[in-house]
Amino acid sequence: MGPFLWRFALTYYNHKKGEKERMGITELFILAIGLSMDAFAVSICKGLSLGKITPKHMCIAGIWFGGFQAFMPLIGYFLGSFFADMITAYDHWIAFILLVLIGGNMIKEAFEKEEHLDASMTVKSMFLLAIATSIDALAVGVTFAFLKVQIIPAVSFIGIITFILSAIGVKIGSIFGTKYQSKAELCGGIILIIIGTKILLDGLGLL
Fold first, then answer.
1. Which pTM value belongs to this model?
2. What is the Cα–Cα distance from 135 to 38, expressed in whole angstroms?
3. For the chain: N or C, fewer Cβ within 10 A?
4. What's the pLDDT tens digit per position in 9-23?
């Protein structure tokens, strides 16, 4: 999703350059949905690995993913355009490596009968996933600076959208995870690796 969102934001910036109009709610909503898609997919994987969940699990996923999706554009907003080149050059590699490592670990745990499913929602696991699914939002934050977007309302909106979709994703995944247990965690790990590979291929311009 990263390169697509960056191109979308940059195209919008070039279209509006020289005009006083700022990014509207429609464009911001499209960006928010796009940015949250990776987090939504990963949240489904988390739900698969957890099996039976509570509202607490949904909130944890929402806070981690929504929080980072709001925080990353804020960082990008203040870093400026110079750092944007570095972000777009390596963000897909960072996401790919993290998701493959985490996905591989989930696959390994699927074959460990005594492994507790709740362990897959540790602080370390959620932190790495949150980074992997939000790294591309840094570049979008740089574009926000160009567009003179009111950054606090914008990132808050993105965070809320991602929170909601991530919570829903965990619930969706848990429905299937409860039925299939370890097989669901195996499936979740494979899906994470597929998502990471897609992000990498997209970033390399092969998709």
1. 0.69
2. 11
3. C
4. 544 444 444 444 455
